[in-house]
Design a protein that fits this description.
This protein is of the alpha+beta class. The chain is built from 3 helices and 20 strands. The chain is globular, with a radius of gyration of 21 Å.
Amino acid sequence: MRNYFTYIFYGFGILALLFFSSCEKKDIVPESQEENNITAAIEKIETVYTEGCEKIEVFDPNYVKVETDAPDELKRSILETIEKTYTKTEVLKNNGNRVGVFRNGSCGVHSYLEIYMDSEDDGCTSNQSGWVGSSYIHWNHNKNISLLFCVVDGAYFTRTNVDYAILNLSSSTNWGDAEGLMRYIDNEDDSNDNQTYLDGQSISGWFGLSYFSSNTRLHFYYYKQTTTTNSFPYLGISYGTLGRYGSYQGWIYSDDEDKNNANSAYYYSSYYANPIPTGNVPNIMDVGGNTKLYISKAR
């Protein structure tokens, strides 16, 4: 009988070891040799959340934040690696002239997009204020962020009497009377839980000129203020854009990865052969080691 209970004891021990080992952090496996080389060069371990294993994120009010930047050369290498994959995939790449506007309630007949970003785990300071449409901070989940968009036809947008930007979900680099802004956000490295959904279905990789994975690449059409009397188009829904205008304004602040942060921002224009690095974009976003998006109600 004693041996019988001994076997049971060891059996439970083995099962426990198997369970806990299944919840260990797993390194991202690069999809190509180029990505593998960059991963080795960056020397930072980015892990993905294991499905079915609870990620425990506890806010410590006494934690002292230390934020470090990745070298510029590494930032460029990361972006170059992502952009090299663009010509190798057709998934959600060619989407006509689709753009994303900030959701405010129902998207009606339009598709809807959710970008869930895993904020920095340690001493997270992600926040929101004022009008941000349906986007929100997950206050009970370490202040992670959901950016919610309606996917609409971009043909109706043009310059107005305010600065604004909308998410570029097409493959077009024909800016028309707009210019381009790209924001690369280095999300939490440890057990990263980034998720992106189109009409409730999980997606990843390229969506037009935006890219979704364990980090987030957002590409915007940027319309600068002009003296026109043009107004925002009626789309049959209430929506917002990046910008600071009107009676309903707000912002979302994303606390991005603290260690070896690879955030970057680039400006695209038909006047330049190549994109150029940019700092804060007035009325649109603040960039650097963290990200602040200014949002206003258009309709």
